[in-house]
Amino acid sequence: MSLNTTSAPPTFVTVLLRGLLAGLVAGLLAGTFAYVVGEPRIEAAIAIEEAATHAAPAVGHDHHQDELVSREGQRGGLFLATGLFGAAMGGLLATAYALLRRRLRTADDGRSGLLLAGGALLGAVIVPFLKYPPNPPAVGDPDTINQRTGTYLLMVVLGLVAVWAGSLGHRSIRRGAPPWLRAGAAGGGFLLVAVVSHLVLPSFEEVPDDFPATLLWNFRLASLGTQVVLWAATGLLFTALMSRGRRPALDRDAGRLPAPGRSAFDAGTPARP
Amino acid sequence: MSSSTPAQPLVRPAASPRMLWAALAVVGALLLLAYLVAFDQGAVSRSGMYLHELMHDGRHLLGVPCH
């Protein structure tokens, strides 16, 4: 049985299109998760916000009042936001893959796609989440939005630097060393950057005293879940698309491996059971 | 990548300068798209606050500071 591989590696455009597609689909999946799990929390937070605004109308800073887009529109716009954002992230993942896969030194390219998506999840989502957990409507002082946006973006960059430091730590130990030593060096490099960034950057404590703690926790969990779905699905779908045509082809109709002794090219005509 | 060379070499030729420029342009365009979703308040989209408001819930749930 020959393992059929395509002779030429895919071009950058092909890789990019697969990344965009994977990201778009992953974004819509993440949007579905956010719609089911996150929207009830946003509705609850907006109800609290509106109750506060009605109690003290002078404070009415808020742009929910403008009704430029109705709540129904915003709930639908959720899918537009996650879909576009997902496509952008999928495209960035594909570009990183095209540029970096030679340097990742993984045994096969499928693993490098997953590794990059995992690194992005850790560096661009989990590290910033721990420093600047997302807030529902009604939480956050509009006067500090520019500082919070800037420090959040800085934390995303530092999170990715921390992942890079982890990979440097991993590589600094020779290849034959025991696995725990390489893993420890990777974790040490990552934690060094992540912890120092966490300690050095400013914190913002702006949750109102009377905001329900469980609602805040549930919202933040929903937000984290949305981003985990986004990156996990992007990584898996991208890897699946990249492995098409490079593996012994699955029988498209029945979804089973070609019978022993048959080449992948024969898979189109199903074997007699 | 030292001893035995497999039939299908793991190391591919280095990325060409043309490919690097293309990648840079793509990264710029994709970051602009992400900016449009996550941070823009009409300056780039030229739609006033419409797109910003439309994608309000997504921004919150994608973990971006909003207001």
Write the layout of secondary structure elements.
The complex is a heterodimer of chains A (273) and B (67).
Chain A: H1 12-55, H2 71-104, H3 109-131, H4 145-172, H5 179-200, H6 213-243
Helix pairs in contact in A: 1-2, 1-6, 2-3, 2-6, 3-4, 3-6, 4-5
Chain B: H1 17-38, H2 50-54, H3 56-61
Structure explained in plain terms:
With 273 residues, chain A is mostly helical. Chain A is built from six helices and no strands. The radius of gyration of chain A is 23 Å and the shape is globular. Residues 248-273 of chain A have low confidence and may be disordered. The longest helix of chain B has 22 residues, at 17-38. Residues 1-11 of chain B have low confidence and may be disordered. Chain B is elongated. Chain B contains three helices and no strands. Chain B has helices spanning 17-38, 50-54, 56-61. Chain B has a domain at 40-67. Classes of the chains: A mainly alpha (273), B mainly alpha (67).
